[in-house]
Write a structure and sequence with these properties.
There is one protein chain. It is built from four helices and no strands. By secondary structure, the protein is mainly α. The longest helix is centred in the middle third of the chain and has 41 residues. The termini are far apart. Keywords: Membrane, Transmembrane, Transmembrane helix.
């Protein structure tokens, strides 16, 4: 005796009706509606703008952090000298060299930002001429 749950499902007498799928019309090759033509000039400009904003943020953070750290270290050095503990004064020249190197690296970052701005302006002018 066969179990009812193990029997194959009953086959319908008629096949199901097939529905037609309407596809959207594709643009003709002579029309310029391709994805590349719509985004080819805008995407690189947006990427450059993102890069420039990151560089500008890095420049500001580098100069700001170096200035604040140097100022706080000067205040700490003055305080420690006032209480008779010249701990930082002994290594002051090395710390000044460290902060000067931080200013130099921030300056290179600023130079990179300015060169990128110039390149972006020249590129956008060249794209407008096309």
């Amino acid at each position: 005796m066969a179990r009812p749950d193990l029997q194959p499902p009953a086959q319908p007498d008629e096949p199901p009706a097939q529905t037609e799928i309407q596809l959207p019309e594709m643009p003709q090759p002579d029309q310029d509606h391709s994805y590349e033509s719509q985004t080819s000039t805008h995407t690189p400009i947006r990427q450059v703008q993102l890069l420039l904003s990151l560089l500008a943020t890095g420049v500001g953070a580098a100069f700001g952090a170096t200035l604040d750290l140097k100022k706080n270290l000067d205040q700490l050095d003055d305080f420690l000298e006032s209480i008779g503990q010249p701990l930082i004064s002994r290594i002051r020249s090395k710390l000044d060299n460290f902060f000067n190197m931080a200013y130099v690296s921030a300056g290179f970052l600023l130079l990179a930002f300015l060169c990128s701005v110039a390149s972006s302006i020249l590129s956008s002018l060249a794209l407008q001429k096309k």
